[in-house]
UniProtKB/TrEMBL annotation:
It comes from Tetranychus urticae. This is Peptidase C1A papain C-terminal domain-containing protein. Residues 1-16 form the signal peptide. Residues 82-328 form the Peptidase C1A papain C-terminal domain. CDD domains: Peptidase_C1A_CathepsinB. GO terms for molecular function: cysteine-type endopeptidase activity.
Length: 331
């Protein structure tokens, strides 16, 4: 009987058929990984977290879904045929931060990271490589009152960028005014860096001062954005926005199987959602006949495909196409 049930569940996902893995299968178990790899879907699963890490992983998912309907929606006139593939890392090779995978550590701050990363990329792109700064996720987490290590909206980060400005800082012990407080760590399995603490860590306190050895004051170091905007869920509009202005911020609903992503084009095999994660889309392409978005996560380079993942494009997989927020820098 068990084999028969699994056979019914194991419908091919190659062209979009859905498999709803039973909720009584632990998301981080070998059984879940084996099921994903047995059904002939478009991606491969493997171990990124140990089974005991599930409560910790859920705390990482701090993004709130939804963007402001009050913001202007851009519309691009598309008179040319868009390229079949695009990678911002190759399009703007001098902007090296595009290829950098950050680590949010033991803090549900992916919503902040995905925003400041795209902002930093766009400062470089708009300045033709002359200005390369890594904006501070630390300021957003600790000083903006937008959610801290709990939950936050990406659109709120973009509004803060336009009205309050954001200082530099980048990663843990990074260069700039306000580096990130949480050190990189292995999110649930052993590896070359320390394992993340499993217990919750509170949002760090705010001190609106630059690091002691930094040459500017907090106010002098501020970088500002222009009025933010939203992009429609039309994949061609999203593609045109990326190739014109650079990477964009989005969010995904995280389903239980996503935690085990290793390679290929992700599409969900379960209806068991765990939360939401802020991510950065840097390009697109097609793999084995399946269109995808190329996306950067903030769980360090030891998760997934060296920190990146591909997700099915054109069907609003995990709602990635319905929550696009962006903006341009004020240079």
């Amino acid at each position: 009987m068990k084999s028969l049930i699994f056979l019914v569940l194991s419908v091919s996902l190659a062209y979009g058929a859905r498999v709803f893995t039973q909720r009584n299968v632990h998301p981080l178990s070998d059984e879940m990984i084996d099921r994903i790899n047995s059904i002939g879907t478009t991606w491969k699963a493997g171990r990124n977290f140990d089974e005991a890490s599930l409560p910790y992983v859920k705390r990482l998912l701090g993004a709130k879904r939804g963007s402001s309907k009050k913001l202007r929606q851009v519309h691009h006139e598309i008179n040319e045929e868009l390229p079949e593939s695009f990678d911002a890392r190759a399009a703007w090779p001098n902007c090296t931060l595009i290829k950098t995978i950050r680590d949010q550590g033991n803090c549900g701050s992916g919503w902040a990271f995905s925003s400041v990363e795209a902002m930093s990329d766009r400062i470089c792109i708009a300045s033709h490589g002359e200005l390369q700064v890594s904006l501070s996720a630390q300021e957003i987490v600790a000083c903006s009152n937008l959610g801290g290590c709990d939950q936050g909206l990406q659109v709120a980060v973009y509004i803060y960028y336009a009205t309050e400005g954001i200082v530099t800082g980048g990663s843990y012990h990074g260069d700039g005014c306000m580096p990130y407080d949480f050190e990189p760590c292995m999110h649930g399995i052993e590896g070359p860096i320390p394992t993340c603490p499993q217990s919750p860590i509170p949002t760090p306190s705010c001190s609106k001062k630059c690091a002691a050895d930094y040459e500017k004051t907090f106010e002098e170091d501020k970088h500002y954005g222009l009025t933010p905007y939203v992009v429609s869920s039309d994949p061609k509009q999203i593609m045109k926005e990326i190739m014109t202005n650079g990477p964009i911020s989005s969010g995904i609903t995280v389903y239980a199987d996503f935690l085990n992503y290793k390679s290929g084009v992700y599409q969900k095999t379960t209806d068991h959602s765990l939360g939401a994660q802020g991510v950065k889309i840097i390009g697109w392409g097609t793999e084995n006949g399946v269109d995808y978005w190329l996306v950067a996560n903030s769980w360090n380079e030891y998760w997934g495909d060296k920190g990146f993942f591909k997700i099915r494009r054109g069907n609003n997989e995990c709602y990635i196409e319905s929550d696009i927020i962006s903006g341009l820098p004020r240079l």
